[in-house]
Amino acid sequence: MVDRMGREKACLITGTCIEGRPVEILIDETGTIAAIDEKISGSERSNAEVIIDGSGTLAMHTLANTHTHAAMSLLRGYADDMILQDWLGQKIWPLEACLTGEDVYWGTRLACIEMIRSGTTAFNDMYFFMEEAARAVDHAGIKAQLCYGFIDLNDHDKREHEIRATEALVTSIKGMQNPRIKPAVGPHAVYTVSPEGLAWLAAYSASEQIGIHVHLSETEQEVLDAQKNSGKRPPAILDQAGCLTDRTIAAHCCWLDQADCRLLAERGTTVSHNPASNMKLSVNRAMPYPWLVEAGVPVTLGTDGCASNNNLDLFEEMKIAALLQKFAQNNPTCLPAEEALSMATVTGTRALGFGSGLLVVGEPADIMLIDRMVPCNTPLHHQTSNMVYACNGGAVKTVLCNGRVVMQDGVIPGEEEVLNNASRAAADLVRRAADQAE
Ligand SMILES: C[C@H]1O[C@@H](n2cnc3c(O)ncnc32)[C@H](O)[C@@H]1O
Ligand SMILES: [Zn+2]
C-alpha cells in the first residue's frame, strides 16, 4: 500500500474469505503477503497502517493475460467480422501506420484500466512505441512484459530499423529499474520476420536473458505458406532460428500438429490460448489443448488485442476457452473449470515470471476481492465454477498489485482523465488514417 506521499505502508484486509474460509490478510510494506489467518494477532495487526474492509468478498490471486496488444483498445470496434489476412492488411496495418507514441500511451492506460476492472494485474504485450506503453504501465501500477512487434518483411533496411527499435526498448525498460516492468523481444510471426531477423532476436534475447513473445500457427494459411516457402512448419522455423526456448510465449497455436506440440514441450515453450480472437477471426481450428497437455506444454490464457476480442476480460476468456475446447473435442470433461482458472492464474503468472500465481504467504500481494453478494455468486456451490462459468470481470470490487491498491470498491483514481484522452486519441487516429487514405 502506498500513501499520498508515496511511502509504502503495511496493510490489512479484513472480513474476506478464501475458498469458503473467513480470513484476514496481512501485507507488509514490501507488498508481500505476510500472514493469512482467521484473525491476525494483535502484535502483527498493529503493523498495518491501512485497513481494507473486505466484508462480503472472496479473495483470489489476480489473473495474468499472456497475449495482448494493449493499445489496440483504441481500435475496439474499428474492424469487425473479417478474416485475419484482410483484417490486418486492409484495416489494421494502414491505421497503425498513423499511430503516435501518445496514442499508445493513452491506449495502454485505457487497457490497464479495463484489465484492473476485471482482475488482471499482469500482461504480456507486443506493439509499437513501447516506451510509451512502459510509461503507461508504470503509471497504472500493474505488471507487464513488453516487447516491440518486430516486422522486417524480408527487407534488409527494415530489419536494421527493427533491430535498433528492439534494442532501444530493452535499454529503456532496463533503465527504468521497475520490477513490475520487464522487456522481451517480439518476432511478430514467421510470415512477417525473415530467418535472419528471427536468428538475431533469438541471440539477442539469449544474451539479455529476456523473454520471446511470438504469434505462432494461427491460421492454416500460415502453415501452408511456411511449408511452401521453406519446407518447414512454423514451429520448426522458429526452432531453427533458436526462438523456441523456455523463455518463449507463443500465442494462438491453433494449427499445431502432434509433433509440433512435442517440439514445444521439449523446448519448454509456453502457449497462450486466445479462444475469443480465434473464433472471431474464424481461424477454423481450436488450439489442440489435449495434445499440448499430453506433451507437457504449459498452457496459459490471453485475450489478444481489443480489435479482435473486443475486450480484455479474462473471466470471459476462461469461460470461452472451456466451452470452445469442450465443443471442439466433443467432450464436456475437456478443460474443466479448475484448469481454466489455473491457466489464468498459476500458469500465466509463472510464465511471465511474476511469482507463483498463488495467494499464499511470501508471495506478492496480487489480490482481487470479488463481490460475494451478486447474482453470479448466488448460490455458491463451487466457487471455481462460479468464477469460470457464471461471473465476468464486473464482479471484481477491489484489486491490489504488489500490495498497492489499484482499484477500491470499483474506483480507479484518474479513470475519467484516461477515458477522455483515449476517446480523443482514437477519434484523431481514425481521422488521420482517413486523410492518409484520400
Ligand atoms: C503487433 C502487431 O500484431 C498485430 N496483430 C494483432 N492481432 C494479431 C493476430 O491475431 N495475428 C497477427 N497479428 C496480430 C497488430 O495489429 C500489430 O500490427
Ligand atoms: Zn496477437
UniProtKB/TrEMBL annotation:
Top-level class of the enzyme under EC nomenclature: hydrolase
Cofactor list: Zn(2+)
Subunit structure as annotated in this protein's UniProt entry: Homotetramer.
Function: Catalyzes the deamination of three SAM-derived enzymatic products, namely 5'-deoxyadenosine, S-adenosyl-L-homocysteine, and 5'-methylthioadenosine, to produce the inosine analogs. Can also deaminate adenosine. The preferred substrate for this enzyme is 5'-deoxyadenosine, but all these substrates are efficiently deaminated. Likely functions in a S-adenosyl-L-methionine (SAM) recycling pathway from S-adenosyl-L-homocysteine (SAH) produced from SAM-dependent methylation reactions.
Pathway: Amino-acid biosynthesis; S-adenosyl-L-methionine biosynthesis
Further remarks about this protein from its record: SAH is a product of SAM methyltransferases and is known to be a feedback inhibitor of these enzymes. As a result of this inhibition, organisms have evolved efficient enzymes to metabolize SAH via different pathways. The pathway found in methanogens differs from the canonical pathway, it uses the deamination of S-adenosyl-L-homocysteine to form S-inosyl-L-homocysteine for the regeneration of SAM from S-adenosyl-L-homocysteine. 5'-deoxyadenosine is a radical SAM enzyme reaction product which strongly inhibits radical SAM enzymes.
Keyword Cell membrane set for record: no
Name the record gives this protein: 5'-deoxyadenosine deaminase
Keywords annotated in UniProt: Hydrolase, Metal-binding, Zinc
Cofactor annotation remark: Binds 1 zinc ion per subunit.
Gene Ontology biological-process annotations: S-adenosylmethionine biosynthetic process
Organism, as annotated: Methanosphaerula palustris (strain ATCC BAA-1556 / DSM 19958 / E1-9c)
Record-annotated Amidohydrolase-related domain positions: 63-406
Catalytic activity: S-adenosyl-L-homocysteine + H2O + H(+) = S-inosyl-L-homocysteine + NH4(+); adenosine + H2O + H(+) = inosine + NH4(+); S-methyl-5'-thioadenosine + H2O + H(+) = S-methyl-5'-thioinosine + NH4(+); 5'-deoxyadenosine + H2O + H(+) = 5'-deoxyinosine + NH4(+)
Entry binding sites for Zn(2+): 67, 69, 215, 304
Family affiliation: Belongs to the metallo-dependent hydrolases superfamily. MTA/SAH deaminase family.
EC number of this enzyme: 3.5.4.41, 3.5.4.31, 3.5.4.4, 3.5.4.28
